[in-house]
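Appendix B, example 12.
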Amino acid sequence: MTPLLLALALVTQSTDIEREAAAGILRQIDSLEARLKPTENAQRLAARTDAGRDRVLARVATVWNSELQSVADWIGHHPEVGWHEFQAVDTLTALLRSYGFQIDTGVAGMPTAFVARWRSPAGASGPTLGLIAEYDALRGTQGDFHGDQHNAQSPVAFAAARALMEHMTQARVPGRIIIYGTPAEEVDPPAKGIMWRAGVFKGADILVRSHSSVETRRDRPGFGVCCLNIDAVKYTFTGRPAHQLSAWNGRNALEAAVQFYSAVDHLRSTWRSEHRVQGVIPEGGIAPNVVPDHTVVDYFIRFPDEVYLEHIARMMDDAAKGAAQMTETEVAITRYGEYRDGITVSALEELFFAYAKKLGAPGMQEEKGRPAGYEETGWVSRDIPGVGISVRSSSFANHTYGMRDDNFADIGHKGFLLDAQLEAAVLFDFLTRPELRAAVKEEHGTLAGLQGQYLAALRRVYAPEIGADTALSKESRAELRIPQVKRP
């Protein structure tokens, strides 16, 4: 492996096993990037003189400052957690209707999911530009709050879409714009996974999304996801109630849950150090004088790659079954959420970053991040190329009250405007530059083909350690059931 490729591997893949399995794949990615030259092409596109593009970016600023910043502030002051974002959806869809979008609500069976479509007066024969819009808040001890700045993501997308609509109408550019209203990013099951399985995103040629950050950074090409591969799993233990003075007449589901929780802690030394297994016991019984007959242990099981993640999950299943057997209780295992590696396309990462430099974005970081797809589930980015715009919009970490307060400060407002302009710039070039569309299609298609080889290589490399049994049965995979929420 050359020093350049070794340096790439050390940043692109975070574990020894990944680097060993990915060596050949990385050489192919390196060869692809050398041929497509995404950095040079992005810098050329951003540096060129283009009056149409510049008018679009100026229009984004006008629309943001006159209308959409106040919408972001309003959502920020009226936080609603996932599956309950009724006020936000009503406000956002009404605004999109006034722009001329056709709206479908309740998509994929989710009351607070929507799809908004607009077709150019010049026809739909051009590219279909997709924008992801989020609006859910975090749950907190002091009440719901927008400590991840999802309040701004929809208005950011709307500002970019509005300016592009006007350009396409005036310049008679064919194509479509679709805005995907995606709820409940902070809770499970993952809404984008449900929408992906329902085919909601089919037909989009590109997807863009923005998200709050403390820095402006682009990612390397390859396979990854923002927060590690995850299985969200609930282990429900069922026993038999009895009076605690004659506890032998019952079967204690809490003791089963505690035995399981303890077993998981004892398993940690047998797992590779990169694992992150986080659990709580949200249901542990009702009264101390009644033997608990129903308990729930809720875990997020995380690992950098999905193959070893399956190994950990299988061992945890066995531990849960063992705890149930020793306490003569029963256990039901429900995988209610899955997050897997997505695909990062360098042509779009470099393009957004080149424009970020051009527009003077704050917090610029030259070092590239680990591949992370462009949205948190990974599934969507395996099918459709896209990019997540990440501009410094807060001086506080994500999921904090400081980031919430920055929603309404200059650092937030200016960061959100830049997000909108960068989304518009990337989509404008994709719309008007056939050579960019061809490069994106080739890079994404090649990486999608290599991802299967990468997973197969991981299984081969792990085999001496964990054996061939590295896949969970189909019956135990996530069903991603949508919570039933009534509108207030």
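The chain is about 45% helix and 15% strand. Residues 434-466 form the longest helix (33 residues).
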